[in-house]
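Chapter review: from sequence to fold.
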Amino acid sequence: MTSSVLRNAEWWPIVVVVFVIGAVTILLTRRLQRQRHGLVPRIFGNTQTGRPLLTSLGSALVLVAVLDPRWFSETIELPFRGRNVVVLLDASRSMRCQDAAPNRLEVAKVLLGELAESAVGDRFGLIAFAGTPVPKCPPTADPRAFRRALRQVASERMPVGGSLPGDALREAATFLSADSEDSLVLLLSDGDDMGSWPLEAARSLGVPVVTIGLGDAEQGARIPDDEGGWLVYDDSEVWSVRDDAQMRDLADATGGIHVPLGTSVVNARKLWRERLAPLVGGTESMQEITKERSEWRWFAVPGLVLLGFGSLGRPRIA
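The token string follows.
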């Protein structure tokens, strides 16, 4: 199948500006050379007239490569399960702790984005929570839309402070499909709860709940405040320590699993394939996916070669 498309077409204004600057630079350089030869014709010999042409052509090819042209595509069939994954992301203040770099919340967002990319054809929905749940993205099979919703999650944007995972679990019911066999709830938190009865809420969903614990479980970390310092209560700095006990209970009571991620890095693709996906059934179907083949190398390689030849040679002294 043949079709022409520029993957980075939105960059064309930048490419045009760079090309125009390069062309103007070459013209000015040639004019300066002509003036120099006219003033002192016996001192400087003629430069290689082909160099500006090679440089211009090479630059043009490299700039086209930047636009990532694609004109061949193929259609393939892939099996899809169509699982429904509802993500509950803790965005309370304690998730700003920096025992996981750069902080717990950012580590969770990176992991979730990679999970969504790994689960091709499955739907991911997002609910952020602190003192109240805030739906961010209904279940979608588009990982880019899910990632955009993730980027909008920040503790300072939550309307109410605190940590009430039970309320988030009850809100998750609105995102679950009618068939509980193809649904999964994924809760990422450091384990804090302020009396929201999450165990009862998890059991009422009727689907597996996977809990992922973030942060250090031994010493914990101080909670940053909004002014660049540390949160203080009763003249003492507030520390947050990951609490696995309640999250493990949630997973065990619903047939899920608990992943004490802590401050480490995990292979998201392996985690999804080997531990999370087997928890959910889903109805398998075949879907057609059209993939475009990148052809930027056909422009970049000759462009760099021409730039290399264009840089050879120097003006000769007569």
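Two observations follow directly from the output. DSSP finds nine helices and 13 strands in the chain. The radius of gyration is 29 Å.
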